[in-house]
Write a structure and sequence with these properties.
Blueprint (H helix, E strand, L loop, with lengths): L5 H19 L13 H17 L2 H9 L8 H12 L5
Helix pairs in contact: 1-2, 1-4, 3-4
Amino acid sequence: MDQPSPHDLTRLADFRARLAELDAGTTTSGFDDADTTDDTRAFFKRAASAIEAAWPDDRLLRAYQETDGAPGNAEADAILAEIRHRDLDV
């Protein structure tokens, strides 16, 4: 990952959702039995960890402050969703 992007935060949410599906045994995202391996879980965990490392709390809050914060702004929405996930104060 070269330069962190708010689009990474959307991917992060997707990775977390897929991990939750795998952990719950629900495979609504098109997984089949072969996709529920430990390697698949490890891939999603590594990918999520890399994005989280690129977006420490201070960067996340600063990036949100630089947006207009208006609902419907995809960038602001993705950043705000991650702020809420981490239970940070805006």
